[in-house]
UniProtKB/TrEMBL annotation:
Keywords: Iron, Metal-binding, Oxidoreductase, Peroxidase. The keyword Transport does not apply. The keyword Iron applies. PROSITE patterns: DYP_PEROXIDASE, TAT. Its cofactor is heme b. InterPro entries: Dimeric_a/b-barrel, DUF7405, Dyp_peroxidase, TAT_signal. This is Tat pathway signal protein. Signal peptide: none annotated. It holds the Pfam family DUF7405. Residues 30-51 are annotated as: Disordered. GO terms for molecular function: heme binding; metal ion binding; peroxidase activity.
Length: 428
């Protein structure tokens, strides 16, 4: 039993467990309570989805059918030794390690979701280039006002679960620090092949940002993040109708059919003025659209919106006239300008989550789309550089949420289908 100070320190340990990582964090989680058993995966992997990015049918949903991403997330950036292509033994080891994870944990938020993706630099190790069916440029700056570091590690492993102890136990096993994972023996580890070059952690879900806001750089000392908010900025994002389907972002042809591309940025947040100088209506206007604010479409964190952010074709077309009329434009309204196919289908599947890495409020922003160029187009639309000629709008002021977010890193990756997830060659 815990009480008083013990209780406070126990909660502190748990809150930071995935951010800190390692054996001590894992045992802190396991000591918390008698841990519930974690559902295991199938012996026969053929029953698993062919797409590594097929997560939507395996996560919780809210009352409106919006997917709720797993609460705990980890990104492991991985490098291979040397400059040449990996060999068959390395490929076997990677596949064996991932297959053990598949068997150890049910593919779900209650168990573990995972996917591994590869960078342009990884594919550069091979003589053959990537086929034309894959659009995977090197990462680059996507606005005139950012100077990010570029993630050019070979691979990116993404782990996600509603249980912190699952993410940590999977990581410990993959690093070779534990011989088993959920009762399954690891025949090989990821670190037999890769070096872990970087480790980034995060979380998403109602209550989690508020619980972590105290003393965090980027968050005002009044601790204004609402308890019900899944994100630091105080609203829900990722409504079903404003997200691409997994089908839509999946490559339909070429050797990597069944895969997708993943852009991952990391953005630092500075929310002093967001909360300190802006009213609730102004925040709604800058995140959604001024019409949302005027018509009172957003209540609280936005649950009343249901399964759709309420961004209409009219709002998309009226960005400039909104800027003239209201003196500001909305983030979602601006980004949506490039986020629709001609028939109205949404182009990108955003799976972002929050972070306290480096003791500052930040955001890890994975986005899935068929082509990286699509993401670049959407980001350009979000930049709103074309609006900065208007009197009230500056590049970063009254221009959506650009005043409060600062891009630190960008990386581009290909998520192959599951059958090719272990050190794929550019062409089969
Ligand atoms: C702190 C950072 C961010 C927050 C809090 C945030 C929040 C939101 C919210 C609340 C919406 C409206 C609801 C929805 O459709 O999900 C939205 C839409 C959107 N955001 Fe963000 N966002 C952030 C950063 C970004 C970044 C970096 C991008 C990169 C391009 C982006 C792209 C989009 C897109 C494409 C939409 C959907 C617009 C549409 O097609 O309807 N967001 N965002």
């Amino acid at each position: 039993m815990f009480g008083g100070e013990d209780e406070t320190s126990r909660r502190a340990v748990l809150k930071g467990a995935v951010a800190v990582g390692g054996a001590a964090a894992l045992s802190a989680c396991l000591e918390e309570t008698e841990p519930e058993p974690v559902p295991s995966g199938p012996d026969d992997p053929s029953s698993l989805p062919a797409r590594q990015h097929a997560w939507n049918d395996h996560v919780r949903t809210d009352d409106h059918g919006n997917t709720l991403l797993p609460r705990h997330q980890l990104l492991l950036y991985l490098t291979l030794p040397g400059d040449g292509p990996p060999d068959a033994a390395a490929r076997r080891d990677v596949e064996s390690a991932l297959r053990t994870l598949d068997r150890a944990y049910e593919r779900s938020s209650d168990g573990l979701l995972h996917s591994i993706a590869y960078s342009p630099r990884y594919f550069g190790r091979f003589e053959a280039g990537l086929p034309d069916s894959v659009d995977l440029p090197e990462p680059r700056a996507l606005s005139p006002f950012e100077t990010p570091e570029f993630d050019r590690q070979d691979a990116l492993l993404h782990l996600a679960s509603d249980r912190a102890d699952v993410v940590l136990a999977a990581e410990e096993a993959l690093r070779g620090n534990e011989p088993t994972v959920n009762g399954r023996e690891m025949e090989s580890t990821l670190t037999d092949v890769f070096e872990v070059a970087d480790r980034r952690s995060g979380f998403v879900g109602a209550g989690m940002p508020a619980e972590r806001q105290d003393g965090l750089a980027g968050i005002p000392s009044s601790n204004p993040v609402p308890e019900e908010s899944p994100l630091f900025m105080g609203f829900i994002a990722g409504f079903r109708e404003n997200q691409a389907t997994e089908d839509h972002v999946t490559l339909s042809e070429g050797p990597f059919a069944g895969g997708t591309t993943k852009h991952v940025s990391n953005l630092r947040m500075r929310l002093e003025d967001w909360y300190g100088e802006q009213s609730f209506e102004e925040r709604v206007a800058e995140l959604f659209s001024p019409v949302h604010a005027e018509e009172g479409l957003v209540d609280g964190v936005g649950e009343d919106l249901g399964d759709d952010s309420g961004i209409t074709q009219e709002m998309i077309e009226n960005v400039r006239s909104n800027a003239r009329q209201f003196g500001r434009v909305g983030h979602a309204q601006k980004a949506a300008r490039a986020n629709r196919e001609e028939d109205g289908t949404v182009r990108t599947l955003r799976r972002h989550f929050e972070s306290t890495d480096d003791d500052e409020a930040s955001l890890h922003f994975p986005s899935l789309q068929r082509r990286i160029t699509t993401f670049e187009e959407v980001r350009e639309a979000m930049n709103g550089t074309d609006l900065a000629d208007l009197p009230a709008i500056r590049q970063r002021v009254n221009n959506g949420i650009l005043e409060y977010i600062f891009v630190k890193r960008r990386g581009n990756f290909l998520v192959p289908p599951r059958s090719l997830r272990a050190l794929p060659t550019p062409e089969r």
